[in-house]
Amino acid sequence: MSSAKTDGLRRQVLDAAVAIAATSGPDVISMREVARLAGVSHQAPYHHFGDRAGIFAAISEEGFRLLANAIEASTTLGMAAMCEAYVHFALAHKGHFRVMMRNDLCSLEDYPSALIQADRAFNALRNEVTVILGEDSHEDEANAHTAYMWSVAHGLATLLLDGPLLKKLGSVADINALIRNVARKASSSITV
Amino acid sequence: MSSAKTDGLRRQVLDAAVAIAATSGPDVISMREVARLAGVSHQAPYHHFGDRAGIFAAISEEGFRLLANAIEASTTLGMAAMCEAYVHFALAHKGHFRVMMRNDLCSLEDYPSALIQADRAFNALRNEVTVILGEDSHEDEANAHTAYMWSVAHGLATLLLDGPLLKKLGSVADINALIRNVARKASSSITV
DNA sequence: TTCTCCACTAGACACTGTCAAGTATGAATA
DNA sequence: TATTCATACTTGACAGTGTCTAGTGGAGAA
Q: How many whole angstroms separate alpha carbon B140 and alpha carbon A158?
């Protein structure tokens, strides 16, 4: 049971943490700072999250839920669309994505409810690969194709978010066009 | 000018930091801890690195130098080999790689000597792409292909290093075979 | 000898995460 | 109504951190 005020603080802390992660990165998130931003004592957040890793776990769960939703919604549109959905999620939810992909901040295995959401996202990709390859394909090939698609999407997302890709490429008029182009290349090499 | 003893401490600190990054991640690296490991006072490392970011910059420069060497050495072997070289570098130099790809630890632009090494690696990839596409290809296509190859390599490297890829895939008998398979898929879609 | 770097030490400061203990409030129970 | 009790906090303390400032010892040059 949790009162309105409780959920209020929990939400405030979460939102503050996600915002900090989006602008300055997750490492800058501090228990005392989020408490300060919420206007409560430095120990108040502990009541809702246990410790610092608990905040990261809560952000991860929320992020993986959103990611799984986005990916599942794109399955009917094919492999390229899933890849695009992954990258667009990362760009649209910078704060969440940065936390989700940092296993050192909180190891997912310790937070089963977050792990469930992560599995939803993975299974959607995995299923789509087996559908395309056919049920009777070898497991090694399914593994390789899954790893391949995930690598493209994840690599592009992280390079766009925190990497020097855009800076190095120099002139990129339309990022969405670049994402679509890369996603199409990836999916074409899987159907062939 | 730097004495043997000076370089000794600098090396010791760097090695300790890389080792910590490889086992526990860069965030665990502490000025006081590396000083303790080297058997000097908590302020000694400041003389060589200025501040904490300076250690990360030194690790980055060293890492990018090694990466550029590996990639340049693989250019004659083709696109797939470059992709494999990138992933193998990440696995073989876990500590370096983790630091290099974390722009929040030290922004490369503030450390020109590190930036030079990073550019060496990027240019090797970029050149190979233009060689394959031909000099007269459109810049957008060259950009997309470069982003694409980099994404595959970087995505696979990060997923293998810190991501849940292997855990999720379940049974992967031979990691090197998986890397080779993914690299071949990537390079095949660029030559077609 | 004196001067002056160089590599390092020592102490302090503000900041952090977290443990332990106290307090106000509202609901349930006797 | 009076008492109990859990919830949602506050306050205070502690060890650990990065880093600023101020020393210290020793080697080479004048």
A: 20
Q: How many domains does chain B have?
A: 2
Residue A18's CATH number: 1.10.10
Verify that B35 and B100 share a domain, yes or no: no
Q: Are residues B45 and B93 in the same domain?
A: no
Q: What is the pTM of this model?
A: 0.93
Of B103, B155, B177, the CB nearest to A152: B155
Please state which of the ranges A31-35, A102-106, B132-136, B144-148 shows the lowest mean pLDDT.
Answer: B132-136
Cβ distance B186 to B79 under 8 Å? yes
Written as six digits, the tokens of A38 are 């919420």
* Nearest residue in chain B measured CA to CA from A109: B164
> From the CA of A30, how many Å to the C1' of C14?
15
Structural domain that includes position B132: 57-191
* CB nearest A188 (choices: B163, B171, B189): B189
CA separation for the pair A187, A191 (Å, rounded): 7
Identify whether residues B66 and B29 lie together within a single domain: no
DSSP states of A98-127? HHHT-TTTS-GGG-HHHHHHHHHHHHHHHH
Q: Does residue B36 sit in the same domain as residue B106? A: no
Say whether pLDDT at A4 is over 50. no
Q: CATH code at A103?
A: 1.10.357.10
